[in-house]
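Reviewer 2 asked us to include a model.

Predict the structure of this chain.
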Amino acid sequence: MKICLYNINPKVGNKKKNIKKMEKVMSLVEADIYVFGEMSLTGYVCREDVFSLAEGGDGESIKELQEISRERDAAIIFGMPLSEREGIVYNAAVLVDGDEVHIYKKNFLANFGPFEEKFYFSPGKDAPVFRTRGMNIGMCICYDIFFPELSKTMALKGADMLVCISASPTISKEHFERVLPARATENTVFMAYCNLVGEQDGLTFWGGSQIYSPKGNMMARAEYMKEGHVVQEIDMNILREARIARPTLRDTKAEKFLLAFNAAEGGHVFSDNVKRGMEMAKKAQGRRWKEVEVHGNEDVAYGIKLVLGDLKAKIVKSDDVKAIFRDAEGELEVRGNE
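Predicted model (structure tokens):
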């Protein structure tokens, strides 16, 4: 499978011209998937015009790109303002492949320095994974890449490749080029990054679209500061090699996400009894326990299961909180106040 990443310099507000530019690239370069940057349909700096430029999932521009996709027998990923209902617009990544349309809505909206996305866009909440061209693909947009929990979620849901479309100005270049190989390595996925190029209202985008292997090695990169493309053949066998060599997906612990969630919420999500169960379970880690006798209540047992998995639990209602872990080799008693 071949993927083409194109540093596009879109004309702000001119959807027809930008589609023509995408189509021209696809007529000159052979690939199975073509990728264009964040808001490549309309240009990035649209401000209030984004509401009139936005289209729905069955809008004219998506239909036009579907037709091009059918003619080229290729999938297309691009960015656009997506209107879901009147006055509600998302910064979206759209994947079209013939009759199929898949949409991702940017979760993390940049609203610092020169960025003003929260003035115009609503945040997305999902982390979908889509199958196309024999590959499971997760999409994200620009600032999203700095939140590893989003990429990890897509990888755990089966993504083979993460595609990040971006409108990154030169001031952000070094940050992206540090974090992209990290996302590839920690998730053992192909990491494709496609950036805009050119200047829009004082922002200078640096291009440099690039792709990394699941081992974090750069496979190809387009030129900086000019329109152009890079094409890379994707060998799915590399995924197997990377995941055997460094099994990060296998070793990911679901309870750590819950701990992070609890911390992000100020430590108020879990009750004291759940936390007590988690602390007892941590002292019992290192063995494959078959069952646990929990003296306390359901919350204590829940906390234990968050850390050790869904092992068989017998609950004994008691104010004296403790857990007795058992396996074929014996048992371990851990008291809740230790």
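DSSP finds ten helices and 18 strands in the chain. The CA atoms of residues 48 and 134 lie 39 Å apart. We have added this to the supplementary material.
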